[in-house]
Amino acid sequence: MREISPLQKERLNYNPKLAGVLAKGINNIKLALGANTTSVQDKEEIEKLFGHVYGKPIAKFDAVGDALSNQKRNVGVILSGGQAPGGHNVIAGLFDAIKISNPENKLYGFLGGPSGIVDGKYIELTSEIMDKYRNTGGFDIIGSGRTKLEEEDQFEKALEVCKKLDITAIVIIGGDDSNTNACLLAEWMAKNNTGISVIGCPKTIDGDLKNDQIEISFGFDTATKTYAELIGNIQRDANSAKKYWHFIKLMGRSASHVCLEAALQTQPNITLIGEEVENKKQSLKEIVDYMADIIARRSDNGKNFGIALIPEGLIEFIPEMKVMIASLNDLLAGLEKDESYKNASSNEKYSIITSKLDDSSSKLFNSLPSTIKAQLLMDRDPHGNVQVSKIETEKLLIEMIKVKLDEMKKEGKFKGKFADQAHFFGYEGRCAAPSNFDADYCYSLGYNAFALIQSGLNGYLSSIKNTTKPASEWVAGGVPLTMMMNMERRHGAMKPVIKKALVELDGPVFKALQNNREKWAMNDCYIFPGAIQYFGPSSVCDITTITLQLEQAK
């Protein structure tokens, strides 16, 4: 038997709080349906692609009412994409709901992500297995993967596996791309009259899977608190040694929610927000000038130290870089099949690339350090895009700032010292032990997913709302996956995907940062959050993110 820490022993015994009416019993709740819905954009294209699941109404579970069916059901569950704290509790909530509804029900976990249902690799999840993973981080109970479910033969193989196991519902736990796959699978199952329903659960630490019905994706709460603890530790060190500028890159490829929330929790000197950079059409040079100005002004006050937070996806928000990267994504989609390119040296590849880019992108590409060029040309991610996490944006900024400060020193505009440290906080937060909020929220998401299955729904995302209130006041329901979709370019072609939620520059969360920027830049307003607290007063243990509090404030 594997050894576990004293903390994990305590967490295994934690009983998650269940959302609102769900606590009344899985077989004793009533479903209410609202008005029919439309997709967020590209209505005609999305409706054409998803004719069997498109336009369904928003679902909500009311107070105790007509009992839901407790007929025997077998369910399959898939963990898809990158890890996020709380995934095990989604499965725990699903498992408990299944067994409470009918002890003869079975839950099968497909191993290694979506490929498990295609290849027929699975285990039956039992109480003995499940009880070892409650309230723990990671996805190791069944593993995860990034296989995309979008091909006819994949769907046919998945159907055969489901028939073999007598599975009538599949729950896919994942982010926007994983739930796009869930929608494709739901459409295929409905189109072919299989009788198998597909329900999704909203996962991603990036915080970009949300809307009016999905207030927060699970894992965001725990990850941002984990990063805030680490940032606080570094701020304490910087304030003690008073000799380093720390450049900290934070996970969050397509949106800056993680960076923004971490900044509100810790109050660093500089916080870059990708969406703001794009909105202001800031160039790389303008960003460097902005950061160098703060560094110089702090130095004038005798402070040759500070903290700068940088979102992982910043480089794609810089207009000139975004244009170049989009061109690279399309260009490399074709060059991947070109043997002469594949066998070329690095310098030869750079020459081929620059000859095929337009003048402005070619000039920009040539101006970059060779290390950054190489990172831009690495293997694409599963969606055909540049692997932004591999690009050392923090180090690129440091090198450019050094050049800028040398220029300022020659002009007499900088007389201080500049010493740097670079950090990237990513994996440190993805598998952290879930906070009380994520433990409760995820358990409710999984429990609610089975309630949606019992109600005969297909192509829905499990939704828990009113999450800044006590769990007893949370509202359970479901949102049609097609409601969240639009068309985007992937691998050089237009494809249906769930639209990402970016930082709203006119929203209360960004404004909270904006209103404090100058004060935090010049003063040492650092907050040291410390470790996530599990035991103690609810004012410490059960608080939600600042982002959620500001967004839901009435």
Write up this protein.
Helix 13 packs across helix 16. The protein has helices at 6-12, 43-49, 87-101, 115-119, 127-130, 152-165, 176-191, 220-241, 257-266, 274-279, 284-300, 314-317, 319-335, 339-342, 346-356, 359-367, 370-376, 393-410, 427-430, 436-454, 508-514, 517-522, 538-541, 546-552, and strands at residues 29-36, 57-64, 74-79, 106-110, 122-125, 167-174, 197-202, 245-250, 270-271, 306-311, 420-425, 460-465, 475-480, 485-490, 493-498. The chain is built from 24 helices and 15 strands. Strands 1-2-13-12-7-6-3-4-5 form a nine-stranded mixed beta sheet, with helices on both faces. Strands 9-10-8-11 form a four-stranded parallel beta sheet, with helices on both faces. A two-stranded antiparallel ribbon has the order 14-15. The protein is α/β, with parallel strands linked by helices and 554 residues long. It has two domains: 16-219 and 434-483, Rossmann fold (3-Layer(aba) Sandwich); 221-430 and 507-552, Rossmann fold, CATH 3.40.50.460.
